[in-house]
Each structure stands twice: as structure tokens, then as C-alpha cells.
Amino acid sequence: MKQQALEFLRSHILGLWPNAAAPSGGHGFDWNVLVAPASAAGEQRFDSQYWRANVQPTERYVLSTTRSKFCRLRSDDCGFLNLFLAGDWTRNGLNAGSVEAAVMSGIQAAQGVSGDNIEILGGYDEMQPQGTAAGRSPVWGEPRTTAVGR
């Protein structure tokens, strides 16, 4: 894997990171853009980087570590009034990677987009209405009340 990463830096990275071109003629990767001890030169600077290859599907999954819930974004907390987040990685009342958490998050996003105050049965304190259902500026139409799961 390390050799593949080095080959990518040597041959392909400049398309994604054009300012990392070597100063001498602009051809090749400038290894000095990598943070490393002063004694490291050229490709040796790569040895000071944290790198890993996630090859198993479970290695690419969101973790639910202890006391990490505060790091998750709410569906309506991305900084844009007309964008709502959905996924089990959001702050949705269930701090776990699961289909259930994804569904709860999707319902929260639907609250924000539609303005409906959709009740999430079995929800937690954090399952408060999102977007217009919480009294924020509307994205679509007027808020309505809908029950899901009855």
C-alpha cells in the first residue's frame, strides 16, 4: 500500500493539488509540502505522515465512541438554511451506526424540508422538530403536523 501511495504522489496528485508541484520546473511532486523532520528529504518525508488503507468495509464505517455525541451535527445545523443533513452519522438521538439511526435522521431532515412536525415514535429528547417545524424560517410552504409510525 505504501508503494501505491508513493506512486500516486509521484504521478497523479498534481491534478488534485496543483500547488504541490516541485518548484524546479513544476514537474513532479514537491515533497517539502509534507510536514516532516528537517532531516528527512524527498520521499523519506512520506514516512512521517499518518497513512493507512481502509480495505475492509467495517474500517470505513463511522464509529460511535464514548462522549462523541456532541461532535455530531443536527440535521438543521450545517450552516445553510436550505440544506438538511441525513445519515446515521448525524446527531439524531441514537448515537450508533445503524439503519434505525439513519431513518431517524431522515425523518428529522424531512421535518426541516417539509415543515411538517413529524412525530418520531420512540424518539429521545434530541428528537426535537427541525427546520420550520421548530419555528425557523420556512424552506417549503407552511408547517404542518404529521404522525409517522402509528
Entry summary:
By secondary structure, the chain is of the alpha+beta class. The protein contains two helices and two strands; from the N terminus they run ααββ. The chain starts with a helix and ends with a strand.
Summarize the topology.
Elements: H1 2-11, H2 99-114, E1 116-120, E2 144-148
Parallel strand pairs: 1-2
What structural class should be given to the helix and strand makeup?
A: alpha+beta
Whole-number count of domains = 2
Return residue spans where pLDDT drops below 50 for at least 5 consecutive residues: 138-150
Strand content: 5-15%
Question: How many distinct beta strands?
Answer: 2
Can you summarize the main beta sheet? 2 strands, parallel
- Tally of separate helices: 2
Form type: elongated
What is the CA–CA distance across the termini?
51 Å
From the alpha carbons, calculate the radius of gyration and give it in angstroms.
23 Å
| Side-by-side strand order of the widest sheet | 1-2
| Helical proportion, percent range | 10-25%
Mean pLDDT: 79
Succession of helices and strands = HHEE
Structure write-up:
This protein has 150 residues and is α+β, with helices and mostly antiparallel strands. It has two domains: 2-48, no CATH class; 58-148, no CATH class. Helices cover 17% and strands 7% of the residues. It is built from two helices and two strands; from the N terminus they run H-H-E-E. It has helices at residues 2-11, 99-114, and strands spanning 116-120, 144-148. A two-stranded parallel ribbon has the order 1-2. The longest helix has 16 residues, at 99-114.
